Amino acid sequence: MQEGTISIPGHREVTAPAQSRPRGDVYAANCPTRQLLDRIADKWSTLILMLLAAEDMRFNALKRRIQGVSQKMLSQTLRSLERDGLVSRSVEPTVPVTVTYAITPLGRGLFGSLSAMIEWAETCMIEVTAAQRAYDLKQASAG
User: Fold this and answer.
1) pTM for the predicted model, two decimal places
2) In angstroms, rounded to a whole number, what is the distance separating the alpha carbons of residues 57 and 51?
């Protein structure tokens, strides 16, 4: 690999001068990668993408399926996902207006990556719960 080449699995190698390569501040608050990761990694975005990957849904159907999400938070999250090109919103001029949300091809590509994480969580939840209990017992006995 050439000096200054950054290798990211699944992406072309990018050559950058050594002084411009990412360092500890690569994920500063205004870093576009960090901003996108913050958005797509939150629980509401992940749950919305999971549901829309299975089928297109209306707002109220999403709200019913995602327990605990407020109307305001669902609306904000859908708007952000639409802005990022991960979700599309179609409006039908009925009375009342019918709004349907769907995952886009870009969103489906992201969901492919998220599904591996979701599968890991479902597969390893027993081990994680056991680790949490062991940690809590250790903290309780130390305190």
Assistant:
1) 0.72
2) 8
Give the number of other CB atoms < 10 A from CB of residue 97.
8
Domains of the chain with bracketed CATH: 5-142 (1.10.10.10)
Question: Is the previous residue joined to 96 through a cis bond, with omega within 30 degrees of 0?
Answer: yes
Distances (CA, A) of 56 to 71, 121, 136, 140, 141: 18, 24, 41, 47, 50
| Digit-coded pLDDT (tens) for 66-77 | 999 999 999 999
* Angle in degrees, 0-180, between the axes of helices 32-40 and 43-54, rounded to the nearest 10: 70
For 63-122, the pLDDT digits (tens) are 999 999 999 999 999 999 999 999 999 999 999 889 999 999 999 999 988 888 889 999
Altogether, the residues listed in the chain come to a count of 143
Query: Is-contact 110 49, C-beta < 8 A?
Result: yes
